[in-house]
Every structure is written in C-alpha cells, then in structure tokens.
Design goal:
This protein is mainly α. The protein has one domain. The chain has five helices and no strands. It is elongated, with a radius of gyration of 19 Å. The N terminus is likely disordered.
Length: 152
Amino acid sequence: MQATSESGGGLSPIVKTVARWMAGFILVFGLSVVLYGHLTPGGGFAGGVVLSAAFILVVLSHGRREVLQILSERAPTIYDGLAALAFLLLAVLGYAAGGFFLNFLPKGQPFQLWSGGIIPLCNLAIGVKVGACLFGVFAALAVFRHLHQRSA
C-alpha cells in the first residue's frame, strides 16, 4: 500500500490536520532555536534544519501538488539567495563600521534576546538559508523520484 495517492493529493484529512498543527509548532520551535542561538544551544544551522522539517512534513502529508499551489517551486532558491545576501550585507555593514563582521549594533542587557548585537541577525540569515537549502534538496529529490518513476 502506498502512503500517498498517485494524484499527489496527500494522506487522509486526519493526518493532514495533525501535520498542519505540528508544522506550526515546529516552525515556532525552529524560530526560537534560531533567535535564541546566541544564548542557548542551537543557532542558525540547527534552527534551519528544524524549520525545513516543518515544510517537509507539510509536503509529505499534503502532497506535492497541493503545496505547490501555496509555495512556488522557486521559493527555496529565492529564500536561499535572499538569506545569503542578508548575511553578506551584515558583514559589509560591519566593514563599513570599522571591520569585517564588526558588531555595529548595541549589545543590550546580558541574557536578553537582543544582547548579542548582530549575532541574532546572522543566526536568522543562516537559519533561513539552511532551511531553504534543505527544503530545496528535498524538493529536488522528490521531483527526481517522480520523474524516475514515470520513466520506469
């Protein structure tokens, strides 16, 4: 028995509902790992992996076609490029302030969200980049699998 239907419609309504709810919780957890990475274990890479897991769960539960109605095939590439550009912009702004990746923001109070200067912003850019790349790899493998099954 196959997990998804041939039409790409996904699984049962119960699984879709539970996956949609869980994806929301996973997204919030991923964002907290990214944003608080300078204070707790985690950061951009770990949070990006968690963020991509939320999108992968939605694709697995709802099917590729239903997700493509909401999210375009080019979205991972666009977000990947924008995140890399944001990371580079932070580096260049630091260079303009006196040194490459120099902290140009106030450090704030210790153990608060905005206590790391540009580190939370760097973590956010890395988290979006990693999440978009991993989701893009998953989407590419899913398309390759679909094309391979059609040719066989």
